[in-house]
Amino acid sequence: MSLTEPGPWLLVVAAAHLGFQLTVDLVVYPALGDTTDDAWDEAHARHSRRIAPLVGLLYVPLVALLAWTVAVEPQAVGTWLATVGGALAVVTTAALAAPMHGRLAAVAPAERRDLLRTLDRVDRVRTAGAVVCLAGAVLLAG
Question: Is residue 1 situated within a structural domain?
């Protein structure tokens, strides 16, 4: 495998993506869930401002690398495993998690708790997608 092929790059980005997802799932969202009602607006606004650039820094290269991998190694099982996992994470983020964050900024505290529980479940789907994506990248590299 050479650095002129997508495999090694996909492996690095998929591993970084999983690390990011695990951090959000196990650290960031639980901390948000522990935020008091009077501190919520500022804490959530800070989270949103800080997380958006990281999502872009990870998702843009992830999508580009998955597309490159599909273009040059369409016969490999690892390609499709990584693509399905990556797509699951990206689509779940765009279709569910991001809109939930928009709603979290405006709901009452009682509704916020329910929405945060739903967001936790959605985030588990994104994390599972990141695991599958990394597994595909490992398979491709092997």
Answer: no
